[in-house]
Amino acid sequence: MAHLEWSDALNLDLPLMDDTHREFVDLLAAVDQAGDADLLSRWRTLVEHTEQHFGQEDDWMSSTRFASGNCHSMQHKVVLQVMREGTARAEQGDLQVLRVMASELALWFPQHAQSMDASLALHLRRVGFDPATGVVHAPGALPGALIHGCGGTTCSDSDAPGADESTAHPATAPAVPA
Length: 178
Known about the structure:
two-stranded antiparallel sheet; Four Helix Bundle (Hemerythrin (Met), subunit A); 56% helix; mainly alpha
């Protein structure tokens, strides 16, 4: 099973985002190390954190001209749905599904952080966004049109600002084991 530890590679030089990401990594490690008796409660703590974590990033995107259906926000929705499905399966006695999901999250998170979150952090710095206050200090740097892709250079032309949302990257998320 894959395990995740915090490293400098996950640091995005946006302190509030980095602190939230560190907490995610720590909570994922707590799930990974949990015995069966504590697994579901630790998983629920991770899900609760992830709801707040993703909600915070989605709010930042909304405040800085990302469309509500951009691929970054859509990936958040898909991952949370999968995590909630894991909770429901574990509540029915299938704890192994949480162990598999934790391993998948350990593989998924670095890619997400180093691509989508890194692009978001760069965008937030460019527009002078203060994550603690929600103030945009360089409103002239905000994009003229809503951002429909992930906001980074790795998005395809179809994800450029103003592109039709139906052409955006599909959201990828850890799989729910059958």
